Amino acid sequence: MRVLITGGAGFIGSHLSDAYIERGDEVHVIDDLSTGSIDNIAHLKKHERFHYTIDTVQNHPVIAELVDQCDVVFHLAAAVGVKLIVESPVRTIETNVRGTEIVLAVANKKKKKVLIASTSEVYGLSDQVPFREDGNLVMGATVKGRWSYACSKAIDEFLALAYWREKKLPTIVVRLFNTVGPRQTGQYGMVIPTFVRQALAGRPLTVYGDGQQTRCFGYVGDIVGALVKLMDDPGAVGKVFNIGSNEEVSILELAHRVKELTNSDSEIVLVPYDEAYEEGFEDMPRRVPDITKIDAQVGFHPEMTLDGILQKVIAYHSGR
Ligand code: UDP
């Protein structure tokens, strides 16, 4: 199979590229290196079945040509990371909405199957934990920049599902919950690489708010396995799936686990949200996926425990 991965030099995209190369498929990557890195695909560059283009998905003729050359498309290119989103809302909205519009329009011409990566952010302020795919999405006010990300991704979902219903373009939507592992950078605010780097450098671990908010961290290897299975399954078309782990941990507890596993003397400090992001920033108190649907569809059980994930991330950041 010939697979096109937009955002293929990003954290998840590069692991997905690895999976398809290992399976014996041909991989084409397009990435503008805005948040991705050439280092993530450096090991693949010499592989004869691996091809990459440094460009944006908004370059219409380039993406059209790449889609023509491939059988299926994973659209992962997007503005990601809460810090980046709060700081650059224009870029977030334009990248996420226009990029997806273009990818779906060109894929539709040749009816190439597209998997669109959405996010657990779309559940917004919903308190119906664990979140189910058919649950309501509860957006915050438009004056709070964070929600522009959720809204831009919700539009992507609507568009992908509309292409399926109206034009019979096979599309799949996945909502990724806090995906973590080696190659993820803390540069755009992600908590695990941030804590690990802080702990290794002996700097304070910055827990935002009171640290009682919870998340479930899914290992990138498990997540990529699910993406590959969904793409192979004709029954997944036209559907939305949560993908992630359901092992819930508070951010304060996470800080303690990172400190322990790195044998770090770093202190743990509480930083108010207003200082960490922007005034009036709203966080979700709990975020847990219901993963019954993806399990029923393709058999999905996250294998890696949180400690296992942390050990891998620590090894990566210590250069081991
Ligand atoms: N967080 C934190 N310290 C950091 C970075 C993030 O306490 O240095 C918190 C953040 O406020 C959120 C959680 O960790 O409650 C997960 O943040 P991340 O940006 O990784 O993903 P999110 O779940 O916000 O998309």
* Rg on CA atoms, Å: 19 Å
Structural class: alpha/beta
- Number of discrete helical segments: 11
Largest sheet, spatial ordering of strands = 3-2-1-4-5-6-11
CATH class identity of the domain at 2-179 and 218-245 and 288-302: Alpha Beta
Mean pLDDT score: 96
- Small molecules bound: uridine-5'-diphosphate
Could you please describe the fold and organization of this structure?
By secondary structure, the chain is of the alpha/beta class. The protein has a domain at 2-179 and 218-245 and 288-302: Rossmann fold (3-Layer(aba) Sandwich), CATH 3.40.50.720. Helices cover 41% and strands 17% of the residues. It is built from 11 helices and 13 strands. A 7-stranded parallel beta sheet has the order 3-2-1-4-5-6-11, with helices on both faces. Helix 6 packs across helix 8. The mean pLDDT is 96. The chain binds uridine-5'-diphosphate. Uridine-5'-diphosphate (UDP) is lined by residues 82, 178, 189-191, 194, 206-208, 213, 215, 251, 283.
Task: Give the key terms.
320 residues, alpha/beta, Rossmann fold, 7-stranded parallel beta sheet, two-stranded parallel ribbon, 41% helix, binds uridine-5'-diphosphate
SSE inventory with pairings:
Layout: E1 2-6, H1 11-23, E2 26-31, E3 50-54, H2 60-69, E4 72-75, H3 82-87, H4 89-110, E5 113-119, H5 146-167, E6 171-176, E7 179-180, H6 191-201, E8 205-208, E9 214-216, E10 218-219, H7 220-232, E11 240-243, E12 248-250, H8 251-261, E13 268-271, H9 273-276, H10 292-298, H11 306-317
Parallel strand pairs: 1-2, 1-4, 2-3, 4-5, 5-6, 6-11, 7-10, 8-13
Antiparallel strand pairs: 9-12
